[in-house]
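User: Predict the complex.
Assistant: Input components as received:
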Amino acid sequence: MKALVLEEINKLSIRDIDIKEELSPNDVRIEPQCVGICGSDIHYYKYGKIGDFIVNEPMVLGHEASGIITEIGKNVKNLKVGDRVCMEPGIPNFQSEETMNGIYNLDPEIKFWATPPIHGCLRNSFVHPAILTFKLPDNVSFEEGATVEPVAIGMYSAKKAKIEPGDIALVMGAGTIGIVTAISALASGCSKVIIADIKDEKLNIIKENYPAITTVNALNVDLLEVVHNVAPRGVDIFFEATGAKNMLSTFTKYVRPGAKAVLIGMPIEPVALDVVGCQAKEVTLFTIFRYVNMFEKSLRLISSKTLNVKPLITQKYSFDDAIKAFEFAASEPQDAIKVMLYK
Amino acid sequence: MKALVLEEINKLSIRDIDIKEELSPNDVRIEPQCVGICGSDIHYYKYGKIGDFIVNEPMVLGHEASGIITEIGKNVKNLKVGDRVCMEPGIPNFQSEETMNGIYNLDPEIKFWATPPIHGCLRNSFVHPAILTFKLPDNVSFEEGATVEPVAIGMYSAKKAKIEPGDIALVMGAGTIGIVTAISALASGCSKVIIADIKDEKLNIIKENYPAITTVNALNVDLLEVVHNVAPRGVDIFFEATGAKNMLSTFTKYVRPGAKAVLIGMPIEPVALDVVGCQAKEVTLFTIFRYVNMFEKSLRLISSKTLNVKPLITQKYSFDDAIKAFEFAASEPQDAIKVMLYK
Amino acid sequence: MKALVLEEINKLSIRDIDIKEELSPNDVRIEPQCVGICGSDIHYYKYGKIGDFIVNEPMVLGHEASGIITEIGKNVKNLKVGDRVCMEPGIPNFQSEETMNGIYNLDPEIKFWATPPIHGCLRNSFVHPAILTFKLPDNVSFEEGATVEPVAIGMYSAKKAKIEPGDIALVMGAGTIGIVTAISALASGCSKVIIADIKDEKLNIIKENYPAITTVNALNVDLLEVVHNVAPRGVDIFFEATGAKNMLSTFTKYVRPGAKAVLIGMPIEPVALDVVGCQAKEVTLFTIFRYVNMFEKSLRLISSKTLNVKPLITQKYSFDDAIKAFEFAASEPQDAIKVMLYK
Amino acid sequence: MKALVLEEINKLSIRDIDIKEELSPNDVRIEPQCVGICGSDIHYYKYGKIGDFIVNEPMVLGHEASGIITEIGKNVKNLKVGDRVCMEPGIPNFQSEETMNGIYNLDPEIKFWATPPIHGCLRNSFVHPAILTFKLPDNVSFEEGATVEPVAIGMYSAKKAKIEPGDIALVMGAGTIGIVTAISALASGCSKVIIADIKDEKLNIIKENYPAITTVNALNVDLLEVVHNVAPRGVDIFFEATGAKNMLSTFTKYVRPGAKAVLIGMPIEPVALDVVGCQAKEVTLFTIFRYVNMFEKSLRLISSKTLNVKPLITQKYSFDDAIKAFEFAASEPQDAIKVMLYK
C-alpha cells in the first residue's frame, strides 16, 4: 500500500508501507479522494511531536478526508460499495463509559488518525467503522467533504455555546478554526459575528468570501468600540480561537452579563483568567476537545448551502505532489486557509 | 383621543375615547405608525371573547405595533423622543415571582393589550414601559417593526426547541404562526424545515417567498415519505402549529429517538397524546405562552436579513380604513397572512 | 443450565435449558444471587405478551438481578472474578447512532433481558458486557443490588426533571415506580415530595418507611388543598406514575408557572392532554424510556444511605420457590412492593 | 433611628442616624431580629473598601438578616404585619434587562445593603421590597433565617453545577462559603462530597457537625488519592471556594471527563487556568455572582431538615455588643464560622 509517510522530523516520503487491517463486520474499506492538510500534520512534520504524542516510528499523515467505499462488513446496512463518504478520524472504545455517555471524544482510549502511534489516511485505502463514516449528499463534493473535519470543530463550538437565535458573537482569531467557528456561529442563529485578528491577510480572505462577518484588525481599530456599537451591553458569546496568553485576562469587557465563552484555542501553558471579571458577569466558560456527533449535522448545513466551505480551500495539490504541498503549508503562508490534496 | 373601538360583537367604530394614562418615570409615550391585525383581534371582533376573556365594555383593539416616541419619563435613558420603536404588548407586574425568575410572560397579573379589560394600541397614542419598547434598527421599517410581535412567537418556539445546528424540523400548519416558526427555525440553525398543511393557498405563498422551506400538502403527498427522505430516522424537532385534535396521537412516527416537540397551536379542548409513542423515543414536549425576551433578538435577525418578514404583509390599509381592513381579515381570506394598517 | 422458563401463558417451569453464550473479550460471566420480580415478568406470565413483544418460544424470565462474576473476557479491566455486581439488562448495539449520542436506551436494536425473544437472567449463569455490569460497594447487599434496576427508573425520572435544590414534587401513583420516583426525587434535591394514590395499602407502606414523603389518598383528601398548603403557586415538578387516562387532562392545576412534568406511567391508549392548560403555565413534559447511565449513580446513593431501598423488598423467596413467588406476585397483592428471589 | 455605623476605617459606633425611607406600595418595613456578620462587613471595617466600592461616608453595616414585619405597603398581599421573615439584600432595578431575563443579581444598578453608598440593615428598622422578603416557615428560627444569605451562595453554586443525582463533588476551601457549598451539594443530590483545606480547625468543625462530608487536610493527605478512591475517573463537580491563585492550574487532575467546575472564590488578581487540561476533559466552568432566586428554596430545605444550618452559628452576641462582635470577627478566629448578632 502506497502512503505519505512521516519518516522523522522534516522528512516525508511517498512509499509503500505494510499496514494490515482486517475488515470487521461493522467496518467499511475506503479509498480516499481528498485529504486536507491540518496544522497538526504540519506540527508533527516540523517538530515530531505534540505534547506527549511523539512520533517514534514512521507514521502515515492525514486525517481530514473524503473517499469512496470499496468494501463493507457484513453488518453494515446504511452504506454500500461506491458510496461517496467522509470520515470522523477518532475511533473510541465503543464499550467505554465515555461512549455510553455520548462523549466518546473524551474516551482516553480513543485512536485518532495521524496521532502517534496511529497511522493517518494519506494512503491507498483504509478500514474504518461504518458508524464513523458519513455519506456525502449528492450536492456535496469530495473536496467539501474533506473540510468537514475542521468544520466540525467550529460547529461543535457553536453547539457548545448554546446559541440563542439573534445572539451576537465575537470570535478572537482568524485562523482556520476562527473562520469555521465564525461561519458556524452564523449558521447556528447568530445575528452578527465579529471576528478579530491582527493579520490583514486572513481578515481579507474573510471579508471577500464571508461579507456577513464583521472583520476587525485589533491593531488598528478599537475592538471594544466596534463591539459596543452592535452590542451596547456586550456580546452574548465569546469564542477564543487564538490560544494567546493574554486573552482571558481581559475578555470580560466585551461580554454582556450572563454571557458564554468557548475556549477553543490551545495555549501552550496555563493562562491568566480574570475570575472576578467573569463572576461579575457570571460568564460560563465552555471548553471543547475536537467534536462529538457533528459530522452528519455539518454535512446537512453544507448541503443546504447554509455553510459555504468552498472558500476555505485556498490551495490545491495532487496526492502525488503531497510532499510539495506539505512544504508549502509548513512555510506559514498568510494567504492560505486550507491546503487540499486530490487523488 | 381617536381609536378603533370594538363596541360589541361585530361592531367597530373609529371614534374619540377617553383614556387617561400617566407617564411614569420609566415609561414612554408613543404614537403608532403601523399596526398588524391579529387572529385574536378578529376573534374578539366576531365572538366577543376568547376563553375566559370577555369584552364587556368597549375596547380598543390592536397589539402588533410600531411607532414613534413622543415623550419620555425622567428615568428613561436608552430611548429618546423621535425614536422609531416597536413594543412588547404584555406588561407584567415587575415585582412578581415570575418576573424575578425571567418568565414574566407567565405572570398571572400581566396586562396585555386588547385583552379585556385592557385597551389595545389602535389609537392616537399610548404610554408604555421603556423596558418593553425596542428601538428599530435603521434598516428596519415601521411595517417590519409591526411584525415583530407575531415573529417573536416563532422565534420563541425556535428558542424553546433548543435547536442544534444542522437539525431538521417539521412544522405542522402553514398559518401565520406556522410560517413565522418555520423561518425562525431556519434562522436558528435548522438545515431543513418541512412545513405541512392541507391548504394550497398558504403553502403557495411560502413556496414563492421562502424557497428554503419544503412545503407539503398532506392531502396529496405522503408526509412520512417526505420526512424519511430527508431524515431517515425522523426529524429532530416537531412544531405543532395547527391546534388540530388528531396531531398528538400520531406525530411520533415523524420524529427521531430523543426528539423535541413544541406545542404552539391551541386546541379548544384536551387532545389525545400518544404517551407510549413519546416514551419509546423519549420525546420532550415544550409548550409556549406568547414569548419572553424575544423582541430585541427578533429585531437583530430582521436587521441582519436572516429573517425576511416582508412577505408576511399581504394586505395594506390605512388607519382610516381600519374597519374595512377588519372586515376583510374577518372573511377568512386564504391569500392573506398579515393585514397591516398604516398611519 | 437450570432456569426459570416461561413455557407459555400461565405455565412456568424450573428446568434445564440449553443457552449457548460465548464470552467475548469485553464480557463477563455472572452467577445470579438475587433477582427481583418485575411487573413485566408477571405480565408475560399472565398474558404472554406486552404490546408487540410476544412470547412465541419458551423464555427465561427475570431482569432485576445481582450476582457474582465467575469469568472475565480478556479486555476487561475494571472487574475481576469474585466481584459482587448488578447488571443493566438492556444491551444496545454499541456502534449505533443512539449509543454514540449517549441515548443507547433508545437504540431500536437493543436486546433486553426477558423481552421476547431474549432470555432473562433467572438461570445458573449468563454472559454480559462488562460496561453494563456494576460492582456493588461493600456496604450494598445482593438484595439491594437487585433493586437497582427499578430504582434506576425513579432516578432517571428525577434526573430528567432537572430538579433544582429546594423544589417541591408531586408524584401520582404509589406503585413500585411511584415509590422509587418519590425517594429519588427527595435524594435529588427536592425539599418536599407528595405522593398520591387511591389505595391505602401502598400509601401505608410509604408512611411507615419513608416519613419524609407526604402521602395523600386522593379519594378522601383534597389533593389540591394539600398541594397549595406546601406550594401556594403549585409544585415545581409533577411525576405521572399511574398511566391512568384522566391524569393529563387535569394536572396543570397542581403545578406552578414554568413547571416540569415527567410522564413515567404507560397508558394503554393515547390520553387526553390539556394543551392550553400546559401552555398557560409553559409546562415542559419529559417522557422516559427505562433509563440510561443510571446504575452507577444509583449505587452511589444507596451506598451513601441517601436512598434506602430495603423497605422496597416486601416478600422473599428462594430460587427453588420461584414459581410460588410468581404465583404470589401474580395475585396482585396489595401489601407487596417487590418480591425478591434469593439463590 | 439607632444603628451600627462604620464611621471610617477601624471605627464603629452604635448611634442615632437619620435615614429617611418611604414605604412604597410594594414595600414592607422590618425590624431586624438576627444579623450575621459577613466577611465583607469585616473587610469594610478593616480596609474601608472592597475593590471599587469605597466607604466615603458613614455607613450602616450588615446584610445577613431576619426580622419581623411592622408595616406593609398597600399592594403587598403575601406578607402581613407580624410575619417572621428574612431578606435578600440586593435590590435591582425591577425594569432592567437583567431583571427581565431572570438574572437580576447581575443588574449593574443593583443596590446591595452595606455596599457603599447603600446602608446595611444593622439598625432599628428598614424598608424593603416585599418580593425580596421571605416568610420564615414556623420551624425555622430567626437565627436560622439570618443564615439564609450565605447559605444562598452555596445553594446557588449547587444549582449552577446542575448536579445529577449520585454525583461526587470536591470542594476546595473550608471557610463559610466552602461549608455552605458542601452541605448544599449534598442536599442537591451528591452522593459524596469531599472538602479540602489546609487548616484543621475548620475541618474539625465540619467533621463534628457534618459527618456525611469527607474532610481532607491537603497538607497531610494526598488529595488525589482520596479522590480516586471514591471516584476512580475523577469527581463530577469541582467547587473552588478558596480564591487561591494556584487552584485553576492544577485542578483538572481531580475531575472526570465532562466534569463541571464552579468558581466561587474571588482571587484578587487573574489566576492561571490550565486551558488545555480543561479541554482534554471538556470541563465547563461556571462562575457565580452572589445568588438569584435562591432564598425561598433555601428556606424550604432548612425547614425540611435537609440543610442543617445551626452548626454554622459558632458565636453569639447581642446587638448592644455588636462592636465587640465585630472586633472578635475581625481577629480572624479559626474556630468561628458565623458570628451572629441578636436583638
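The domain at 2-147+309-342 of chain D is CATH 3.90.180.10 (Quinone Oxidoreductase; Chain A, domain 1).
Let me know if you want any component modeled separately.
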